[in-house]
Amino acid sequence: MKRAVIFAHYDKDSIIDDYVVYYLKALKNCIEKVIFVSCNNLPKTEKDKLINIADYIISEEHKEYDFGSYKRGFEIIKEEGLSNYEEIIFANDSCYGPLFSFETVLETMEEKDCDFWGLTKNYFGIGSKTPHIQSYFIVLRKKTFMSGEFLNFISNIKNENGKNTIIKNYEIGLSQLLYRNGFKDAVYIDTYKHISNPVIKRWKPLILKYKMPLLKCNILRLECINYTTVDNWQEVVRTTDYPVELIENNLARTRNTNNKEFKAPVSIKEFIFGYILVNTPEFIRRQAVKALKIIFS
C-alpha cells in the first residue's frame, strides 16, 4: 500500500529530540511521504534535523493539540490528491519507538479486512465503556479518509478547553463517528479488553509478550505513577533492539522529578497496580497511592 504519515509534534523547549528523529527515520523506511507538523515555532537548526526525512515541515503555534496538527498535515495531502494513497497514518511524538519493526506491523495489518486500524484499542472511554482506536497511532484507509463523514470531522477540529474534552471529541469521537457510519476497524494488539488504557497499565507485557512497537513517554516521565510502575524499564527495553540511551537522554530533560513512586518490592507494586487498583475510579486510586507512599516510606 502507498502510505503517507502525518506526525504531530510538541516540545516544551521547541526541540526535535533524537528519539523523534529515530522514530521518523523508521517510518521513512517504509512509508512514501512524511509530513511533520509541530505546534512549536521551531528554529531552523531543529528543522534541519529532518533533512531527507520529512517531505513537508509545518511549524506554527496553533493550540489545537495533536488533532490540530493532523488537520494541518491532512490539508497538504488533500492538495496533492487523496487518491494517491491507500492509507494515511496519524502518529505523534508521545511514544518512544519503534521497539519492533514497523514493516512487520504494516505487513500484518495489510491483510486485515478493515477501513481503519490502530496499534491498540481502548474499550473504556470517559466514565463509560466507549471503544476507540487510540490516536497516538491510527491508520485510515481510502474508503475512510475520502468519506464525507471524515472530511467534515477533520475540517471542524478546533481549540478545545480541557484534556477530557479533546479526548471525547476527537480521539473517542473519531472512532465513534466511523462506527456509526458503518466503517470497520481492526487492531494490531487486541488484548486486555477488561482494562482501561492497557497501553499504560500493561506496558511491560505488551512489549515482552505481544511485541508492542511503541512505549508511551509519559510512563517513563513519571506522569503515570498512579497507574503503573517504571521499575526495570531499561531491562524491558533492552529485550528489543531499541537504543536505551535515546530514552535516557530525553528523560534527563523531560522527566517529572517532582513525582515519586511509592517504595515497595516490584512484585508488590505490580500486584497492586495490576489487580487491586487496575480499574478503580480516579479519586480512589489517587488516594490509595498517597496512602501507599506513607505505608512504604
Q: What structural keywords apply?
A:
alpha/beta, 297 residues, 11 strands, Spore Coat Polysaccharide Biosynthesis Protein SpsA, Chain A, single chain, two-stranded antiparallel ribbon, 14 helices
How would you portray this structure in words?
The strands form 3 sheets. A 7-stranded mixed β-sheet has the order 3-2-1-4-9-6-10, with helices on both faces. The chain starts with a strand and ends with a helix. Helices cover 42% and strands 14% of the residues. The protein has 14 helices and 11 strands. The chain has 297 residues and is an alpha/beta fold. The chain is globular and about 60 Å long. It has 2 domains: 185 residues, Spore Coat Polysaccharide Biosynthesis Protein SpsA, Chain A; 98 residues, no CATH class.
How do the helices and strands line up, and which of them pair or pack?
Elements lengths: L2 E7 L8 H11 L4 E6 L5 H4 L8 E4 L5 H16 L6 E6 L2 E2 L5 H9 L5 E3 L2 E2 L9 E2 L3 E5 H4 L2 H8 L7 H18 L4 E3 L10 H4 L1 H6 L6 E2 H4 L12 H5 L6 H11 L11 H11 L5 H14 L2
Parallel strand pairs: 1-2, 1-4, 2-3, 6-10
Antiparallel strand pairs: 4-9, 5-11, 6-9, 7-8
